[in-house]
Amino acid sequence: MSNAQLAFFLREAQISGPTVGGRSNPSSGHPLQRSESFVVFQTKELPAINITFGPFARDQALSKELLQPTSPLDIPGQLTVNWKVRAFIVQARVFSNNPTLQVFFYIAGRDWDDFKAQDKLPCVRLHAFRDVREIKTSCRMKGNLAQCLAQLELPPSWFNTIVAPLGRRKGSTDGLLDGLTSETLQAELYYTLHGPNVDGECIEGLGHRGGGASRGEPLSQHPLLRIGSISLYQASQEQLLVDKQLDKNMFLRLPEKPLKPGEVLQISLYLMPNSTVEQFTLR
């Protein structure tokens, strides 16, 4: 095999078959036939199989459909057999007083020496489901790291425990969540990939919708891919947060209530929307 960065031929275990006339039948079924199994892990171009038999030789390149038959990262002119989309939920617990959902997407498995496909990177559409209700948004993977951050503002009705079915309710047993309601709700997160428009921009989700598809919106070419779930909490007065600006680039978000001795304090650090800083020192 040639043109492959990492590939292996698989050796089949020898299994004794029934004998005919004192000889065991080969698994190939014919003495002039031979099959070899192989797996391709990493490649920058289509691998080729080199076959020789006596004075005869034959080379044949593998088809792209054989290597990635149903890949959602199908970019014209780019072999993406090694690419995989990864999703990271920034905050797995979302409170009603700060109902911002953020999911960070990036592509793993790319060749860091080849950035030719930056202008062909897809858009990621984040789908958040609460019962039969759905909201969504899109972001475009960009840059050398092929990453983007999708952000959604969850509606207040999603934190209403009255409308939640029993299958989506869980008792709160976390001691760090004192003062919250006794039940937490779950929202399910999925994503799909789609190409940008002619201007290179992603089409935003059309807001809220129920069980049916939104009118005028094309159906996704790829199925929904699950990310995970988040917990929704109805915050009480003890969970009120206040923002404290450090400088023109950063601000802190911390609890407004007085602290007790030994209490666990969680402080979030944020960048201002118009900040251009790339590095900072936290002391």
- What is the end-to-end distance? 54 Å
What fraction of residues sit in β-strands?
A: 35-45%
CATH topology type of the largest domain? Immunoglobulin-like
Q: Could you spell the SSE succession in H and E letters?
A: EEEEEEHEEEEEEEEEEEE
Organism: Dissostichus eleginoides
Protein name: Transmembrane protein 132E
Pfam family, one: TMEM132_3rd
Keywords: Membrane, Transmembrane
SSE layout and pairing:
Blueprint: E1 6-10, E2 19-20, E3 23-24, E4 37-42, E5 48-53, E6 56-61, H1 64-67, E7 84-89, E8 93-95, E9 100-108, E10 123-130, E11 133-140, E12 147-153, E13 169-171, E14 183-194, E15 225-233, E16 241-245, E17 250-255, E18 268-271
Parallel strand pairs: 8-15
Antiparallel strand pairs: 1-4, 2-3, 5-6, 7-9, 9-12, 10-11, 10-14, 13-14, 14-15, 16-17, 17-18
Which characteristics define this entry?
single chain, 283 residues, mainly beta, Immunoglobulin-like, 3-stranded antiparallel sheet
